[in-house]
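Hi V.,

Quick status before I head out on leave. The structure for the redesign project is tokenized and pasted below; the design run finished overnight.
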């Protein structure tokens, strides 16, 4: 079964967390006031 990770805001630290979790086959759900869609696609995040 897959797991989900929720991230509030995509600052420098949270971007690093999102990069590291990619190795664990987890889906990322992210929220940011000023979303950067190209970076979200790079992280495979659902904004």
């Amino acid at each position: 079964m897959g797991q989900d990770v929720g991230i509030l805001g995509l600052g420098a630290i949270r971007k690093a967390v999102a990069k590291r979790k990619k190795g664990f086959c987890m889906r990322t759900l992210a929220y940011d006031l000023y979303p950067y869609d190209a970076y979200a696609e790079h992280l495979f995040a659902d904004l």
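Above is the designed sequence. The mean pLDDT is 76.

G. will cover questions while I'm gone.

Best,
W.
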